[in-house]
């Protein structure tokens, strides 16, 4: 079981705007901000999460990550669709419209978006509780 995940982004202000909008339908928001001064010069970081627990982090750094895949759990199909629409409105690129992915399992309902740095984000709802 993972506790949290994080990666660097090329422009933290741009990524903050993108992620705040894209993750809002999932109930995920910025819960912590760590300044460069607080890290002793090792970049600034934003912790996104819910219920007072940050579990998804982005940070400034020497080089941006690319090709990372992160899947966020959604509570239903409408939330998957809302994530997809919000992420596209925030400047993301479509990488798979909301829909069933029966090759993963019969109840796998997901949508995929590419963030400003080329990372693949997914929102997924498992029909029938299958995971």
Automatic annotation (TrEMBL):
CDD domains: VOC_like
Organism superkingdom: Bacteria
Domain VOC residues, every copy: 1-126
One Pfam family here: Glyoxalase
PROSITE patterns named among the record's database cross-references: VOC
InterPro entries found in the cross-reference section: Glyas_Bleomycin-R_OHBP_Dase, Glyas_Fos-R_dOase_dom, VOC_core
Entry protein name: VOC family protein
């Amino acid at each position: 079981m993972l506790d949290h995940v994080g990666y660097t982004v090329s422009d933290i202000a741009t990524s903050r705007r993108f992620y705040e909008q894209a993750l809002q339908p999932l109930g995920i928001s910025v819960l912590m901000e760590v300044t460069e001064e607080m890290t002793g010069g090792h970049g600034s970081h934003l912790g996104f999460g819910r219920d007072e627990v940050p579990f998804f982090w982005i940070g400034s750094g020497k080089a941006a990550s690319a090709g990372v895949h992160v899947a966020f759990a959604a509570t239903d199909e409408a939330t998957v669709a809302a994530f997809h629409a919000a992420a596209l409105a925030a400047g993301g690129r479509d990488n798979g419209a909301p829909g069933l992915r029966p090759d993963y399992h019969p109840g796998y309902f997901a949508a995929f978006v590419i963030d400003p740095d080329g990372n693949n984000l997914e929102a997924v709802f498992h029909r029938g509780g299958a995971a």
